[in-house]
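Hi support team,

I'm opening this ticket because the web form for multi-chain structure prediction keeps timing out on my end. I have pasted the exact lines I submitted so you can reproduce it. The total is 296 residues across two entries, so I didn't expect it to be a heavy job. Is there a limit I'm missing, or should I split the entries? Thanks in advance, R.K.
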Amino acid sequence: MFIYPTNSLILSDLVERFGHNPLAIMSKIREKITTIGVDSPPLNITPKEPEMGLKYAAVEVPAGVRGRMALVGPLIDDAEAAIIVRDATIAFGCMGCARTNELTKFLVRKKDIPILEVEYPDSDEDGQEFVYRIADFLKSLPTGADTQ
Amino acid sequence: MMTDELQNEDTITKIVVISSDSILPADAAMRVYESETSITIKETCFGTMVTGPQDVVERVVEELRSLDRNHIFVKERGFSPGDERRCRASRGGGPRPGFHFLREEVNMLPMIGSALDAYDAHVPLEKKGGRTEKLGISTLMNIIESEL
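Hello R.K., no limit was hit. The queue was backed up. Here is the completed structure from your submission:
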């Protein structure tokens, strides 16, 4: 289950809570920083990342977008369903790049998978609707245990 | 050199955010201390971080979640606690990257927790007439003029 914002605590928790595997950026970051590299410590970000991003964005797209897509893109490739939170203004901050966010959502929507689009709640009623819609969506999909 | 400090690839870190009226982060930490010795935990202002071998961390996190299932939230973290690349002790203070996003979501957790309680209790979703929209400029101008 792909989630957007890709580092969301709430989405990651809800997806796991209802028996699915969240495809979140944190696992990719862990993979990146724990793989021993000699080229570009401390974060192991090398010129390879913008090159890998060429699979998802054209060459004239800034290297920052392509570099980020090197992490986000494979998650989208692996996704069998997705939950997108629309107008997630907090996703433009520590995640850092509005264009990457747009491209991420575009690529997910272009993929032929079940997608749920919701908005972050700002009241108890909205919160209830947010959780109910996500829970019903997750329960409507087969889990890994069902398919085995 | 940073590569010497790279964590083992099988080691994962999970952030456990506690938004409960009955459980304190210290209670959760004590529970972890009692249950496992092969993991490291760090108490934080929003809960705890648990680091260790993947299977042990998942077992401990599940145990923690069972303390107050709908009010304890979990997500993975790429960096381990105290990692020099993220820890503010070695970065001259200030919030660490990613903190603002987490704080925004932590503010929503009471709403999400009560919605999960309602979902478990099969409380029907209250239908409402859509999201509250912001006041439009023309409407505001009409109001101002009508006051005159």
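A quick check on our side: Chain B touches chain A at residues 1-3, 6-9, 11-13, 15, 17, 73-79, 84-85, 97-102, 104-106, 108-109, 111-112, 114-116, 118-119, 125-126, 128, 131 (CB under 8 Å). Let us know if the file doesn't open in your viewer.
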